[in-house]
Amino acid sequence: MDVSPSVMTDPIDALRDRRADFPILGETVHGRPLVFLDSAASAQKPVQVIDAMADTMRTQYANIHRGLHWMSERTTDAYEAVRDQVAGLIGATAREEVIFTRNSTEAINLVAHSFGSLMRPGQAVVISEMEHHANLVPWQMLRDRTGIELRVAPITDEGDIALDALERLVADGKVALVAVTHMSNVLGTVTPARRIADIAHAAGARVLFDGSQFVVHRRVDVQAIDADFYTFTGHKLYGPTGIGVLWGRRELLEAMPPFLGGGDMISSVSFERSTWATVPHKFEAGTPAIIETIGLGAAISYIEAIGYDAIAAHETALVDYALQRLAEVPGLRVVGAPAERGGVISFTMDDVHPHDIATLLDRNGIAVRAGHHCAEPLMRRLGLSATARASFALYTTREEVDALASTLTQIRGFFV
Amino acid sequence: MDQDGLYQRQVIERARAPVHAGPLEGATGRGEGTNPMCGDRVRIGVWLDADGRIGTVRHQTRGCAICLASADMMAGLVAGQDRIGAATMGRDFTALLQSGQDGDSCPELRVFAPLHRHRSRIRCATLAWSALEAALIEAPAGTPVGETRDG
Ligand SMILES: Cc1ncc(COP(=O)(O)O)c(C=O)c1O
């Protein structure tokens, strides 16, 4: 029999075999196969990550950067190798520009604290209307601490950053930093990072991108987008919790004071004064998340082996398919219609509250998120108190999207 | 569709067509319950008669079916109760949600018993009761007789 090439190269099916790498996908929930559509909150872990972490603890573990013994040196090598991997992943030119943090939230707090301490009252930070609380609250705290101004770039009704408004917001030259998401966790919007960076730089501002969602779906090139800071979080990238990344331009990191003080971040200490280690260690106080960092390294290897081309093709096709299937559900409204969308779809349904949707989907084995998604100001902007959100990962299948759509149709029938 | 008994007909119908929803003009006690996890909100308006018994309760609810039905059923059930009676009902209701066991003062509320298997949703059902508690703290007894209290 003839197998048509279009079937063979279907980008959604192309990753089907990868599901076997994720042991949890074999679990059942309420007696049904798990349909996990909440990967934007945190992704499931492939066996390669699980094994890398377990093997570290079983065979090659000690504290790093301090031991003179064999185990410590080997573990230090494994940990530092992940810094090179991250640099390669995002196109950093120097490994020293990669700082390990606990998560994206901590990475942004680091910048708000340390870069923020170089800002003067009267200067401003610009964020957008669709930021996760992680890229909002740290700037409010900085504002309240130091008297800087916090400006908010509006979004369009489609869910894109209004670039003309952004241009006006930076025009007075007082803006020190534009800090915006590279992909919205609510609307799925992929923001035009290079254009935003150009707008910021033309006004003398630096730019930070919250890449927590983007890095899962597309290749990041911090040079191509001309970023000054970039953050992401390991657990959404098929890695473990407890490890995140801040990338920053070396000259900025060198000018910034440390964030946390303690061991590992010093060069010398006396009771009178201490001097700081060079970057990146200046920003990595205390024993880091060694095992989790090694887990992140395994996740990056895993993704690089599959390749972002295949990941992005799978996701684009799946999002198109899902939008089409969801359009068939009576009363369902997809929130936002951004120019470019990653694998995140928020929706509401007439007469059915997102919580009821999520509970009823869960009873049928389907995990989605419902609520404000840590973006309350965005919800207010959209005139909503909550949405339901389905989000996709490289292991998501067409059949799972079908299950979502048909169960939503049943739920709607149940309420109306 | 499997729904684990959570959405009994009565719950869905109450949520769709609540009978005690809306503002209460002339309320002497007002209270609000919010769930920061999801942004749901119940506002309660209440007035007490001269004996300290609940006259009318109305609610303005932004929330899920469970939250709405619970608020609406509560508003009907607590009318005529004094503060202690209402508090006892609230406590029994919480116990029912946590254990799934009957034996409470309000058999009508047993439709919410399956929530004990859905811990993350219990707050949806208790939100109105927290709002009522706040409203009753504020409300003085002894509303003048004859005044229109119905919103
Ligand atoms: C866009 C965005 N930014 C930041 C975060 C925060 O990530 P974390 O909680 O790992 O710091 C998230 C995830 O919740 C997110 O989706």
UniProtKB/TrEMBL annotation, chain A:
- Give the highest taxon in the source lineage: Bacteria
| Catalytic activity of the protein | (sulfur carrier)-H + L-cysteine = (sulfur carrier)-SH + L-alanine
* Cofactor(s) the protein requires to work: pyridoxal 5'-phosphate
The identity of this protein, by name, is cysteine desulfurase
Q: What is its EC number?
A: 2.8.1.7
Gene Ontology BP term (one): cysteine metabolic process
Domain named Aminotransferase class V is located at 35-404
**UniProt KW keywords:** Pyridoxal phosphate, Transferase
Please state which protein family the record places this protein in.
Belongs to the class-V pyridoxal-phosphate-dependent aminotransferase family. Csd subfamily.
**Which segments of the protein form a coiled coil according to its record?**
none
List the PANTHER family.
CYSTEINE DESULFURASE, CYSTEINE DESULFURASE 1, CHLOROPLASTIC
Which InterPro entries does the entry link to? Aminotrans_V_dom, Cys_dSase_SufS, PyrdxlP-dep_Trfase, PyrdxlP-dep_Trfase_major, PyrdxlP-dep_Trfase_small
What molecular function terms (GO) are annotated for this protein? cysteine desulfurase activity; pyridoxal phosphate binding
UniProtKB/TrEMBL annotation, chain B:
Protein name according to UniProt: SUF system NifU family Fe-S cluster assembly protein
Q: Name the InterPro entries on file.
A: NIF_FeS_clus_asmbl_NifU_N (IPR002871)
Q: Which GO terms describe its molecular function?
A: iron ion binding; iron-sulfur cluster binding
Which part of the chain is the NIF system FeS cluster assembly NifU N-terminal domain? 7-110
Mind telling me which CDD domains this protein's record contains?
IscU_like (cd06664)
List the PANTHER family.
IRON-SULFUR CLUSTER ASSEMBLY ENZYME NIFU HOMOLOG (PTHR10093)
Q: Which domain of life is it from?
A: Bacteria
In its UniProt record, which GO terms are filed under biological process? iron-sulfur cluster assembly
